[in-house]
């Protein structure tokens, strides 16, 4: 990788943020607490920068800070940390899109997309996404800051965000619907303070953040009276859309096939095909043959069972014997353990390009997630270096790459239906889904299935789009996919902003 230069220009101003020294020790206070480890819920540090995107210099202002969540009496009970990037050379911000971004977990901050995908700074990794040293960050020449301002927010207990009122239980924030409700209120406050009500608005969420984004689309419309132009789902969850039994068992097969193809585990005639030419064959088999076969359960005849198992073995690189032993339903865990078992490796869950080494070859699941360890290895030092040294946000708080948000209430998850209703209600609203073929946590074919089920009427499908990439859960970590996916975002944002004077009507 080429040597990179920091683009930070100068610290512009600091408002509302103080860094108190630890309290003096006394006989009654022998273990003092530093105030710099307590979140200042209403604070901001502002700095000036520039970045070169697609060959053009883009000057921008970065704001790192926190804004409060209030209770019904107007008392701050938590602070949500955010970073906000606003392009400077824009005369009229009323038509300038605003992208509101967050990641998933639940329990992770927005670090992944901020310094891995859409933000103006990019972490130091190799071309396929693996960690390298020295740790750090450089310019993101594919950032979408040229076409939209961006705010990244960290839900409570992630990043620097914290509960500050000891009497407020975690259940206020930690649940599908609780999460959506308080973040909608926070977004309203942010948009109001930053004077962005006139701007076209977009949500982008990754992983569990897609559940959040889908629910927020309707919550913002119905409770905050804020109408969006677009929702972008990166590596979406099931969005609460029902899939069980034979459908749930079958839908993972195309992902298995993609992973086996990547690792060269298939027959020569399949390996010589391009991945995107090979997968439609597997998808057709899954829908037209595997689901009907699994639907017959133990009453499928032996000849058909054997034929289905043979085809599954051909497509997945898993032996026909193992498939038969598991009644044509190989689990994700077993697949990750089995595919490269004879070579002494496991494959990653979130990105199956990554390989791990277990204590023993036996067993039915990997010892650890090889890809997640690699990502934490790369992202953790990079975000801590960036926030402190470039954005000048200095605190003794620990930046939570994974925060404690448990127990999480996942009941009454109707976010897929909420998104459908939001799109139906708002003729301006468009949807883009981006998936990585090697993602085993939120696999690409389940994402396609969600898209198909999102609009049973078929009347909204001209505003719904899916894209696939030859990488995993964070498909943007592969440099080739980063460029293509970011360009797709630019196109989506431009095309989803209505032309002046165009009425929102059917």
UniProtKB/TrEMBL annotation:
UniProt cross-references to InterPro entries, sorted A to Z: AB_hydrolase_fold (IPR029058), Peptidase_S10 (IPR001563)
Protein's UniProt keywords contain Nucleotide-binding: no
Annotated keywords: Carboxypeptidase, Hydrolase, Protease, Signal
UniProt superkingdom: Bacteria
GO biological process, one term: proteolysis
Annotated signal peptide: 1-20
UniProt KW Signal keyword: yes
GO terms of molecular function: serine-type carboxypeptidase activity
Gene3D superfamilies according to UniProt: alpha/beta hydrolase
Protein name: Carboxypeptidase C (Cathepsin A)
């Amino acid at each position: 990788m080429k040597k990179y230069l920091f683009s930070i220009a100068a610290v512009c101003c600091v408002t509302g943020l103080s860094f108190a020294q630890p309290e003096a020790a006394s006989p009654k206070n022998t273990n003092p607490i530093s105030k710099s480890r307590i979140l200042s819920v209403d604070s901001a540090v502002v700095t000036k920068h520039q970045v070169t995107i697609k060959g053009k210099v883009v000057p921008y202002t970065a704001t790192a800070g926190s804004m409060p969540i209030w209770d019904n009496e107007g008392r701050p009970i938590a602070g949500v940390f955010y970073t906000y990037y606003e392009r400077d050379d824009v005369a009229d911000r009323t038509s300038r899109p605003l992208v509101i971004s967050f990641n998933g977990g639940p329990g992770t901050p927005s670090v992944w997309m901020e310094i891995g995908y859409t933000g103006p700074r990019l972490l130091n990794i190799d071309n396929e996404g693996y960690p390298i040293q020295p740790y750090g960050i450089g310019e993101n020449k594919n950032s979408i800051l040229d076409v939209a301002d961006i705010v990244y927010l960290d839900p409570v207990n992630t990043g620097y965000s914290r509960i500050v009122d000891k009497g407020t239980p975690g259940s206020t924030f930690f649940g599908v619907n609780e999460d959506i409700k308080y973040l909608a209120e926070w977004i309203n406050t942010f948009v109001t303070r930053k004077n962005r009500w006139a701007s076209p608005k977009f949500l982008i969420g990754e992983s569990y953040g897609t559940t959040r984004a889908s629910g927020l689309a309707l919550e913002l419309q119905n409770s905050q009276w804020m109408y969006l132009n677009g929702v972008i789902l990166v590596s979406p969850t099931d969005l609460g859309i029902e899939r069980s039994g034979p459908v749930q068992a079958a839908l993972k097969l195309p992902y298995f096939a993609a992973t086996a193809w990547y690792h060269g585990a298939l027959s020569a005639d399949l390996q010589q095909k391009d991945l995107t030419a090979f997968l439609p064959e597997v998808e057709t088999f899954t829908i037209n043959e595997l689901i009907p076969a699994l639907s017959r359960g133990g009453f499928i005849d032996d000849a058909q069972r054997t034929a289905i198992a043979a085809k599954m073995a051909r497509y997945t690189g898993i032996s026909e014997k193992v498939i038969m032993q598991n009644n044509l339903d190989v689990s994700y865990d077993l697949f990750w353990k089995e595919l490269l078992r004879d070579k002494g490796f496991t494959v990653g869950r979130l990105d199956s390009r990554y390989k791990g080494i277990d204590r023993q070859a036996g067993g039915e699941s990997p010892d650890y997630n090889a890809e997640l360890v690699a990502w934490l290895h790369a992202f953790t030092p990079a975000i801590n270096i960036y926030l402190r040294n470039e954005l000048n946000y200095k605190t003794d708080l620990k930046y939570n790459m994974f925060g404690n948000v448990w127990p999480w209430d996942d009941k009454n998850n109707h976010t897929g239906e909420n998104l459908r209703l939001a799109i139906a209600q708002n003729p301006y609203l468009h949807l883009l889904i981006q998936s990585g073929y090697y993602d085993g946590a939120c696999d690409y074919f389940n994402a396609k299935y969600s898209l198909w089920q999102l609009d049973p009427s078929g009347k909204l499908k001209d505003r719904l789009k899916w894209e696939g990439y030859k990488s995993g859960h964070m498909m943007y970590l592969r440099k080739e996919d980063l460029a293509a996916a970011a360009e797709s975002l630019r196109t989506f944002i431009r095309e989803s902003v209505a032309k002046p004077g165009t009425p929102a009507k059917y």
